[in-house]
Amino acid sequence: MTGQNDASEQQAGFGSAIPSRALSARRALLVLAWFGSVSCGGDDTTSPGAPEDVDVAAGATAIVAIVNPVVNTPHTTGVPDELGDARDGITVTARPGDSDVTADGVAVVGAPPGSIELDISGARLSHTVQAEGDVVDAPIAFSGSAAAFFDNTPIRYAVNEASGAIFLDPSVPLAELEGHLAEDDRIVVLRPGTYVGSITITGKGTLLYGEEFLDRAVVVDGSITAAGEAVRLRGLTITGDLTSRGNNFGISFSVVRGDVSITGNAGAFVRNVFCGETVVPSSNATLLDNYGVAPLGALPPLLCD
Question: Which domain of life does the UniProt lineage start with (predicted)?
Answer without folding.
Answer: Bacteria
